[in-house]
Amino acid sequence: MGHTSLDKIIALQNKPANIRNLCILAHVDHGGEDYLINLIDSPGHVDFSSEVSTAVRLCDGAIVIVDAVEGVCPQTQAVLRQAWLENIRPVLVINKIDRLIGELKLTSQEAYTHLQKILEQVNAVTGSLFTSKVLEERAEKDSEVREAGGGDNGEQVYDWSAGLEESDDSDLYFSPDQGNVVFASAIDGWGFSIHQFAHMYSQKMGIRSEVLLKTLWGDFYLNAKAKKIMKGAQSKGKKPLFVQLVLDNIWSLYDAVVLKRDKEKVEKVMSSLGVKVAARDSRHSDPRVLLSAICSQWLPVSQAVLTMVCNRLPSPLDMAAERVEKLMCVGARRFDCLPEKTQELKRAFLECKSDTSAPVVVFVSKMFAVDSKALPQNKQRPLTQEEMAQRRELARQRHAEKLAASQAADAPAQPLSQGRSATESGIEEGKEHFIAFARVYSGVVRKGQKVFVLGPKYDPAEGLKKLPEGCSTADDLCTVPHMACCSLGSLYLLMGRELEELEEVPAGNVLGIGGMEDWILKSATISTSPACPPFTPLNFEATPIVRVAIEPKHPSKYMPKLVRGMKLLNQADPCAEVLIQETGEHVLVTAGEVHLQRCLDDLRERFAKIEISASKPIIPFRETIVRPPKVDMVNEELGKQQKVAVIRQVKEEQSKYPETVQVDSTGLVTLTTANRMATIGVRAIPLPEEVTQLLEANSDLIRTMELFNLSMKEGKTLEINQKTLESIQDLKRKLESYMQGRKWRSAVNRIWSFGPRRYGPNILVNNLEGYRRPSVWQCLEKERSRAETYREFDNSIVSGFQLATLSGPMCEEPLMGVCFSLEKWDMKLPRQPSEGDRVSPDDPARLDRSGDGVYGQTSDQEAQGGSESESVVPTGSSEGKRRNNSSLVDCYGPFSGQLIAAMKEACRYAFQAKPQRLMAAMYTCEIMATAEVLGRVYGVLSKREGRVLQEEMKEGTEVFIIKAVLPVAESFGFADEIRKRTSGLASPQLIFSHWEVISSDPFWVPTTEEEYLHFGEKADSINQALKYMNGVRRRKGLYVEEKIVEHAEKQRTLGKNK
């Protein structure tokens, strides 16, 4: 595989059937036919799984590499899941097989069993993904049948396996006989598929290669006497064919070359294989050099992998229709609900059209930065013969001029300066240029072509309505939301680190596009057709959770450089987020410790190019409430005396509340607004853990519901596809099943809002008598009841709830798993003192829309959001407005603003009336370690508040796999410490998992002697929750109750009389 000319690659780009998009671009001559392979490499560390997502979107296939010793790791599962979600076909390479020989000292038979287990593990992951998909499709079909048939006839037994038996999964699993598995040792330069050995032995043994292909992997053995391949190797105690014909040969080669260094045997092996090795390699002191020289000729790894890629992975022409529809349907939209012109684009996708009439459709998955020196136009290219001749002529002229006038130095200097400016023109030292990493799905992309850049919220139906029919990018068009028009810059062919400039790129190819940094932030869809929808967003496995505040070492001098550098970093990294907090801090959010370090290095060396200082990681916490505990901190049951002490403590706290706040023994908080015109009663109840997890997992569905309710409020309609409606129905059904009991009776139907940001894991429940407002589940209702109307200032209550859940009273962190029940809402507004608190649907005066009365304001006119300065904007005449404003605005400000503040404070007091707890973000940690360092691993985990969930020994090895959970707050430096303590014999993988309640009460104070002994001021153990809470409060500048001076002594002076 030598260097390929650019012209040959450009010619191959026009043959989509011979393209394989799997970032090194290689040209492969395969069986007389040329193939173009785009290999996009992605990092294996879990922190950089976002890079995998950006690569997977542009590909048709994937090579999944698994370590032969470690087997299936968490990242392997994540990669397989990402490939499955994007509907791309994977092939498998089991690498590092040399470690089975050198490190684990396995025999060929044991290695075969070990490889079988790895294949089973990988196939188990794929099988679980396939099963869940089939069962989902089956459930959808059943629901459609029920709707069409009007219900079930009689009792039916649900057969869950029926869908699985009907589905074809023959090409789904990895199996060597299917040609989608390669066994390799990349370090020693060898790799093979069983097709190579089948072809090799069919000539030697006279057995047809088709028979060998089916029997080389499996429970088959060779009967030497009968010269037949028989079944049942395991039951008869025979060597399987794969061991006998394949592994034994590799093992004997390693034995001769590496382990025993038997020169005679090596020469025999080389002569039998027909391999010739250079004398330098055979005399080398390192036996691996000789081994690599032999194996790279006998079983070259590149040939095995690239042959598998060409034969097994699809070309751009083989794109599945299901994948096209999935890419084109954003959010809740259904493909058949898209405009006709949009649906017609599907054909262009599937045919991978490259003619001039085909619409251009390009998806940009990421933006990456390159130095200006790396751009082709700025590179020093080799001189041609004509240029060299021209330079020689110039040199002769200069020499002649020197002889003619030896003192005149100005004339010869002129051509030199011209030459210098020509080479240096356009190169700005150290400037970063952004290139869009993209793939052409349809049409031909040309340099300077005008295109539409479509944002994620662009609606093709709206775009087609606003734009004239048959319009193109060249026309002067009106502005359409989330759509911009621009010209493409330079087009590049990505040759590893090298870039080659192109004039045009046809469909099916991966390319780089210059000059798009002003139009695209991270990813976007580009098209010449306004009917093209934006592609679905990328699926990121890693959650950005680690935050640091950043500032320059010299803020007054370098702050603008830092701001510019962070903007560039935000654009260059698909997973990093850059925020500016209310305090003015510049915050960087990353996926993990390794990712954070990479981002900080990029800021220092590439984007900002200044010295920066980063704060300690800002750890996210959540605040929640729990049921009253039955045991105290020393695990003793709470007796009568302790309960009396708790009641006395609550009464003491009650005396601290303001006059306008009252808290009863059941936890109901009643709060009156400052102008005494409204009273609110709120109770806080802890949500069941299952409900919290369900709400957190379905935030996208809740957001869709809120959008629907908002559009209904504004008198618009939002189309939601059937699949999303079924998911919402399923969410409601699960909520009802989890929220059982007297206190949750019909609570699901009375949900007022979700929070924070209207889609979080907290709920506001309407427990007001006589107030029937439209349900949050409106999208599931066929008809809306006329009796259900919005009460005035309904939105102010919701805004107050949103503010309360966004920052809790413990340390201003968001709430999680809390239900606020609104049980009282009285309003005594001026000019209508005799009116009741509740809105009756039968009283037209109270629902009057004229705007003359106080209740004239409708829900459509209320502002959305959570600003405390929200004001009332009634409709009607200016005189009515003046009257309303004069009556509702007093010295305390607008009434709606007071109601927001009152609701927020009532929720906070209700929260404080219950046992409060902090919730910590948790990582799942998987550690592979040998038996001798196991104790040290446990020591590091226990020191950092970790908890071991599972420990098992990997069969056939001395390696233990430890699964544990570790708080994110304790994870910084964990990987380094564990490597140091175990001398590099253990390495952890951390993936964000869930939120967990810290059991200790941060406000708990010891009362008994035993409690003082365990948790007093001089105790060894500290209150972990209090430590975290004070740390967050200190960082945010909030009051912290702690002793400033611990060991105070009187100042002593040297003078005796002083």
From TrEMBL:
SMART domains, A to Z: EFG_C (SM00838)
Keyword Hydrolase on entry: yes
Any one Gene Ontology cellular component term annotated for this protein: cytosol
Keywords, sorted A to Z: GTP-binding, Hydrolase, Nucleotide-binding, Ribosome biogenesis
An annotated GO BP: cytosolic ribosome assembly
Chain residue ranges for the region called Disordered: 379-425, 831-884
InterPro entries, A to Z: EFG_III/V, EFG_V-like, EFL1, EFTu-like_2, P-loop_NTPase, Ribosomal_Su5_D2-typ_SF, Ribsml_uS5_D2-typ_fold_subgr, T_Tr_GTP-bd_dom
Listed Low complexity bias regions: 403-417
Alphabetical list of PROSITE patterns matching this protein: G_TR_2
Domain of life where this protein originates: Eukaryota
Gene Ontology MF terms: GTP binding; GTPase activity; ribosome binding
Compositionally biased region (Basic and acidic residues): 388-402, 831-851
Residue ranges, compositional bias (Polar residues): 856-878
Domain Tr-type G: 1-210
UniProt cross-references to PANTHER family, sorted A to Z: ELONGATION FACTOR-LIKE GTPASE 1 (PTHR42908:SF3), TRANSLATION ELONGATION FACTOR-RELATED (PTHR42908)
Protein's UniProt name: Elongation factor-like 1
Annotated source species: Scleropages formosus
Taxonomic lineage from the root: Eukaryota, Metazoa, Chordata, Craniata, Vertebrata
